[in-house]
Each structure stands twice: as C-alpha cells, then as structure tokens.
Amino acid sequence: FNCCPCWRTHVEVRLNWFVRTSAFQGWISLAIIANMIFLSLDHYEMPTDLADFLYYSNIILTVVFALEMACMLIGLGWKEYCSDRMNLFDAVVVIVSIIELFLESSNGLSALRCFRLLRLLKLFRNWPDLRAKVDALFNSLEELTYFVGLLFLFMFIYAILGVQLFRTRYELDGEVQRPNFDNFL
C-alpha cells in the first residue's frame, strides 16, 4: 500500500462509506441472527447432515465477521476503530471464533462457542429502539432493587408477626412431626 498512497486513500474512503451504510449494518445484523439460530440448532446426537451444515455455516459466518472487522479496520482506521468499545468487543469475539474454529478441527474446546453468543450485543448498536428499551430496563433495575428490598422487609416483618401471634395456637399431630402438604382434604 505504501507505493500507491492515492489508491490506499481511495479504498479507505470507499470502505469508510460502505461500513457506515444501513445496508451493511442490516446484512451484519442478519448474519448475527443467522449465527444465533445456527447456534441454537446444535444438540446432542444430531444427524450428521445437520452437524456438517452447522460446521460449514459456522466457518462461513466467521469469515463474514472477520471480513466485517477487516473492512471496518481499513475504512475507519485504527484510531477510530479502537475508540469504539463495541468494535473492540467485536474484535475479541471474532478472534475467539477463529481460535475456536482451529480448536474444533482438532477436537479442542467447544466451550469457546459460548463467546459467539455475546455477538448478540452488537444488535443493540444496530437497532436504536431495542437499545433504548434495554437501557430503560437497566435504568429501572436500581429502582427495582429498592422495591425488592422493601418487599423483603415487609415479608420479614409479617413473618415475625405471624410467629409471635400464632406460635401457641398451632399444634402438630402426634403422627407427623412436621407441617406438610400431604393431607389438604
């Protein structure tokens, strides 16, 4: 690339435009959804045809995500690419996916497959409505913890009150030494 700086600049500008288009983001979102569907199809003692399909689709989707990362690195440049934490997170997931491909071919760890599930978090960037709903959910968690704490406090108070009021009025049968739910009728 150093011999032709004008060609390099032209490619960088075109890739910068390309990775910012909604069509590119849409195709990557579809690839993420397809990857999640394929991951959910994996099960114990599955037919060999399905196992082969999932293996080759994993290879294809890993290549797609690696190409996405390469296009974004070239188009955005190192500085802009690394300034977004979601890009760094995606780079880690892509690298782990590539490592998992090599380990899987040598009967290695398939536990790294769980890291590919984290790719779902990229959908939050591509779908602003979904991101707004998830942000609202996480913002309400603080309020929910106060509510759960207050609910626990009331339950604790009424449990102590119930023990104090009814401890002398409840007698167990001689046969069964503990309260049970065997004889409702």
Automatic annotation (TrEMBL):
Keywords: Membrane, Transmembrane, Transmembrane helix. InterPro entries: Ion_trans_dom, VGCC_Ca_Na, Volt_channel_dom_sf. GO terms for molecular function: voltage-gated sodium channel activity. Pfam families: Ion_trans (PF00520). Residues 23-185 form the Ion transport domain. It is found in: Membrane. It is a multi-pass membrane protein. The chain crosses the membrane at residues 17-41, 53-74, 144-166. One of its GO terms (cellular component) is voltage-gated sodium channel complex. It comes from the Eukaryota. PANTHER family: SODIUM CHANNEL PROTEIN 60E, VOLTAGE-GATED CATION CHANNEL CALCIUM AND SODIUM. This is Ion transport domain-containing protein. It comes from Amorphochlora amoebiformis.
